[in-house]
Specification:
This protein is mainly α and about 325 residues long. It folds into two domains: about 130 residues, no CATH class; about 160 residues, no CATH class. The chain is about 65% helix and about 0% strand. It has a two-stranded antiparallel sheet with strand order 1-2. A hairpin with a 3-residue loop joins strand 1 and strand 2. The longest helix has about 40 residues. The structure holds zinc ion (ZN). Zinc ion binds next to loops.
Length: about 325
């Protein structure tokens, strides 16, 4: 089976008409260039990406737990939060150790949060999907770095209702730096400069795409937060400054169109989930929803299948 798939990929990579392949989750996308760099078959690549995913996911767990408390992510070494005993290396193997220990500390038998294996598995799945969706090694690294930042923010918002500036500011700087290496294409910006008769050098155009994406994301979310404060319960904070920073980060990575799509999708899904929960149980009326988690999840989805989703949205709106 494996040999059959890899043999089929050979000629497909040479002819551009044959490159397009349907993905079950995100529509049509080009076959990843990663496969031209290696002669590995898809299942092997998925497996390697997944393995890297669980290892990085394990590090993200440390960030999720410690960064909201402003603790160092390097020291001290991992320890049980209940009995404070250091965790041995063989009890710290991603996912496996959780299963072997039955989700309990070896010493005090205190329950270990399900969050740890969950974050590791989610990171592994996203890494594997990123391999399938990326058209170059650079594109893969960018999606993987972005997804890791988002995973940390999704879970810190979910656990502590916090979106640490240490993560968002680091991400914004990283996104701006990456824009020089991996282009942030913004058709709107290119059109505006085209109308003005200006052609910018590619790195500058990409950097401006990143900056305008960031300003747009932060600005639009700030506007939505302002509207909600005016229209809703004034004593309740629906969206905080952390969410504004989160959308600045999304903007510098992906430019205006995909950032707009993220806000649209995140608010839609967030509102739907909240309405369904409130319909089932009225006590959720006063629940403070982690909208940053919804925006983060939407951003990961958009970063993996954003172009396809954008084209679909435009054709639905009659623009295409
Ligand atoms: Zn313990």
């Amino acid at each position: 089976m494996t040999r059959c798939r890899s043999r089929r990929a050979g000629p497909a990579l040479q002819g551009s008409s044959e490159v397009a392949q349907s993905s079950p989750f995100f529509g049509n996308s080009a076959l990843p260039l990663l496969r031209t760099l290696t002669s590995l078959s898809f299942p092997t690549l998925y497996l390697i990406a997944g393995l890297f995913g669980v290892i990085f996911g394990s590090f993200l767990n440390v960030c999720i737990v410690r960064l909201p408390r402003r603790e160092s992510i390097v020291r001290p070494a991992s320890h049980c939060p209940s009995c404070l005993k250091p965790i041995r290396w063989y009890d710290n193997i991603p996912v496996l150790s959780y299963l072997i220990l039955g989700g309990k500390c070896r010493f005090c038998r205190c329950k270990i949060s399900l969050l740890y294996p969950l974050v590791e598995i989610i990171t592994a799945c996203i890494f594997a999907l990123a391999v399938a969706e990326s058209t170059s090694l650079g594109a893969f690294l960018k999606v993987a770095a972005f997804a890791m930042l988002m995973i940390v923010l999704i879970f810190t918002d979910f656990r502590d209702r916090l979106l640490p500036h240490s993560v968002t500011i680091f991400g914004i700087v990283l996104g701006l730096a990456l824009s020089f290496a991996i282009p942030v294409t913004d058709p709107l910006l290119e059109w505006v400069f085209g109308r003005m008769g200006m052609t910018l050098p590619a790195p500058l155009s990409s950097f401006l795409g990143a900056v305008s994406g960031g300003v747009f994301g932060a600005g639009l979310l700030y506007g939505v937060a302002w509207l909600l404060r005016r229209a809703g319960n004034p004593s309740k904070e629906y969206l905080g400054f952390g969410d504004v920073m989160l959308m600045f980060l999304v903007g510098v990575f992906w430019g205006i169109p995909l950032t707009y799509l993220t806000i649209l999708l995140g608010s839609l899904v967030g509102t739907l989930v909240a309405v369904v929960f409130i319909l089932f149980n009225r006590k959720f009326r006063n629940y403070s929803w982690p909208y940053g988690s919804f925006l983060g999840a939407a951003a990961i989805y958009v970063s993996l299948g954003g172009q396809t989703l954008l084209l679909w949205y435009l054709s639905w709106r009659g623009f295409h």
